[in-house]
Design a protein that fits this description.
Elements (H helix, E strand, L loop, with lengths): L6 E4 L3 H12 L5 E5 L7 H4 L3 E2 L6 H15 L1 H5 L10 E5 L2 H16 L5 E3 L1 H7 L10 E5 L3 E2 L2 H14 L3 E4 L6 E4 L2 E5 L1
Parallel strand pairs: 1-2, 2-8
Antiparallel strand pairs: 3-7, 4-6, 5-6, 9-10
Helix pairs in contact: 1-7
Length: 188
């Protein structure tokens, strides 16, 4: 086990591994990731791999746009095909209030040049005739949204993080932090 590090990352899901990879790519010093079990055995292992741009806050939209770009070029960068399918996401509004919120979200999303449509129930029924539209107020559709394989993405990033010098240590649970003068000085 390394006794010192410039960066210690706790958790070996897709977010922790991505952070390790990107910091190693930027040569941010000695990077150690600690995972109490195996990589991806937490929420990453249970997720459906959804990747979308339809969010309601600036920060989530900016993160999502970065993520979409990573996944659109994932195989080129990581040598692994994460099976990224951009089939689009359709969100449905059950109430007038939800539909108003969707309208506000679409306005915000369009300020980031996100291709997104605000749809009336009739249009949803035409595009997806197998959906019952009797109880909806409308919806949104983002054609760039999609899904990818979480395991493939995690393993591709982990392999490249290691290749760039990051240490990914499994089976090691973090049980505490030692803080001195407002700074973390040790990870237990």
């Amino acid at each position: 086990m390394d006794r010192t590090a410039d960066v210690v990352i706790v958790g070996g899901g897709i977010i922790g591994v991505s952070i390790a990879y990107h910091l190693a790519k930027k040569r941010a010093g000695a990077i150690v990731l600690l995972e109490k079990g195996m990589l991806g055995e937490g929420s990453t292992g249970y997720c459906a791999g959804g990747i979308r741009t339809q969010y309601s806050t600036d920060i989530n939209i900016r993160f999502a746009l970065e993520s979409i770009q990573v996944f659109e070029h994932f195989e080129e960068e990581f040598g692994v095909d994460p099976e990224f399918h951009q089939d689009g996401y359709c969100f449905l509004a059950a109430t007038e209030n939800e539909m108003r919120m969707f309208g506000q979200n679409v306005e915000l999303q369009r300020t980031y040049d996100i291709e997104v449509e605000l749809l009336e129930p009739e249009e949803i029924g035409r595009r997806w005739p197998y959906l019952s539209i009797d109880d909806i107020q409308g919806g949104t559709f983002g054609p760039r949204d999609g899904y990818a394989g979480p395991h493939e993405a995690l393993q591709g990033m982990a392999q490249h993080a290691r290749g760039l010098g990051a240490r990914l240590i499994l089976g090691t649970e973090v049980i505490g932090l030692e803080v001195k003068d407002g700074r973390i000085v040790a990870v237990k």
